[in-house]
Design brief:
The chain has about 400 residues and is of the alpha/beta class. The protein has 9 helices and 25 strands. The chain has 2 domains: about 70 residues, Urease, subunit C, domain 1 (Roll); about 250 residues, Alpha-Beta Barrel (TIM Barrel), CATH 3.20.20.
Length: about 400
């Protein structure tokens, strides 16, 4: 049993909104034991004024530290999970790509097995991004692997799939009903849907938007598109707040338009996240690392890597395909929080809520995760004023 003292605890107030409390202690073993009371036999840990928050939950992340959800190797998924606590993430949804079905199925089997890992961030299930998407807005998803939506194709994995991205203009809305029956969150994304179609899908139950603004119809004053439907409804929106996928001004607009309970920050990162400048990556097919300062047509990059079977060129914080299409982010979760907090004026507690309470509530896990309350899992992230991670605990370890 341990007790954290002298920290700035991020706790829910009487209304459930997160606030900073500088006069509380936190006692835990595998679960939260008490807030404020310190048992006599507890090990005292002085955190010296650092922020003490519930562990971050990343619901949309493909990979990190050179590893990817689609790597055909259970050990790669384990190393991916073991890296994430360095970014403050204590639980996550490994996210698949639009690849041949047999590769997606093997990834889902690994994710199912990975829920039993004893180390690293906890795997809560899978986020399936494609293959039921639009070829008009495929983004970094390989067009040749896109398929018509068919619930039968995912029926064997309803126990592991927690979120699935679809293009609503291309499916029978009964697909949404079938997913909701199995507690799968249906998300609109990689879609050419107009405002009316998107809003109809939201009203039917597709109440989540995959990486708002990216790979979807944008906001125009005569064609409000998916972005307009998202902002004009109670749909929950994902934001990649890395200042590359979403401009700071657009982040501020979302913060003004949506109640904070309807915003979830994600990274959408892939294997290049956590790779240091000068390091080289190895593609999942085992090929040799590419040389640094490589060139392909007009692209100059720090190093090349892979996402969904496609070559990706990484320069600084930007990752693109050969045609210049953005290909996921390299941002760690703590950096995303820092940028969103800076861009929007949200205080630290409110920003943390977007990666703890909100995803836990949406996934139906708020009774065990997402806030500091007695009896919940002791998933804890400690960070400084610059959002640099100093320590994490997962289930008290």
């Amino acid at each position: 049993m341990k007790t954290l003292i002298n920290g700035r605890l991020i706790l829910p107030d009487v209304n459930g909104d997160f606030k900073i409390c500088a006069d509380k202690s936190l006692t835990f073993d595998e679960k939260i034991i008490s807030i404020g009371a310190i048992p006599d036999d507890s090990e005292i840990i002085d955190v010296q004024g650092l922020f003490v928050a519930p562990g971050f939950i990343n619901v949309h992340i493909h990979g990190a530290a050179g590893f990817d959800t689609m790597d055909d190797d259970l050990d790669a998924l384990k190393k991916f999970a073991e890296f994430l606590p360095k970014t403050g993430v204590t639980s996550f949804l490994p996210t698949t790509m639009t690849m041949p079905l047999d590769k997606i199925y093997r990834a889902l089997e690994r994710i199912r097995a990975g829920k039993n890992f004893s180390r690293g961030a906890k795997i809560l299930g899978a986020n399936v991004e494609g293959p039921f998407i639009s070829k008009k807005f495929n983004g970094a998803q390989a067009e040749e692997n896109i398929l018509p939506a068919d619930f039968a194709l995912i029926a064997d994995f309803v126990d592991v799939i927690k979120i699935i991205t679809v293009a609503p203009e291309l499916l029978d809305f009964s697909f949404i009903d079938r997913c909701r029956e199995k507690n799968i969150v249906v998300s609109i994304g990689h879609s050419a849907a107009d405002y009316d179609t998107a809003l109809a899908a939201i009203n039917r139950g597709a109440r989540h938007i995959t990486h708002l603004f990216n790979a979807q119809t944008g906001l125009h004053h005569r064609r409000p598109g998916i972005v307009g439907a998202a902002l004009d409804s109670d749909a929950i929106v994902e934001l990649i707040a890395d200042n590359i996928h979403v401009h700071p001004a657009a982040q501020r607009l979302v913060a003004k338009c949506k109640p904070r309970s309807e915003i979830i920050l994600i990274t959408d990162s892939f294997r290049a996240c956590g790779q240091r400048d000068g390091q080289r990556d190895v593609a999942s097919n085992g090929s040799a690392p590419q040389p640094l300062n490589c060139r392909n047509s007009s692209i100059t990059c720090d190093f090349t890597t892979e996402l969904g079977g496609q070559k990706v060129f990484v320069t600084g914080e930007r990752a693109v395909l050969a045609d210049g299409t953005l290909a996921g982010s390299v941002a760690p979760m703590n950096d995303v929080l820092k940028k969103f907090c800076t861009n929007t004026g949200f205080d630290v507690a409110a920003t943390v809520e977007l990666v703890t309470k909100n995803p836990a509530v949406e996934l139906g896990l708020f009774d065990t995760l997402g806030s500091f309350e007695v009896g919940k899992s002791a998933d804890i992230t400690i960070f400084d004023d610059d959002f640099k991670i100093k320590a994490t605990w997962i289930n008290g370890n």
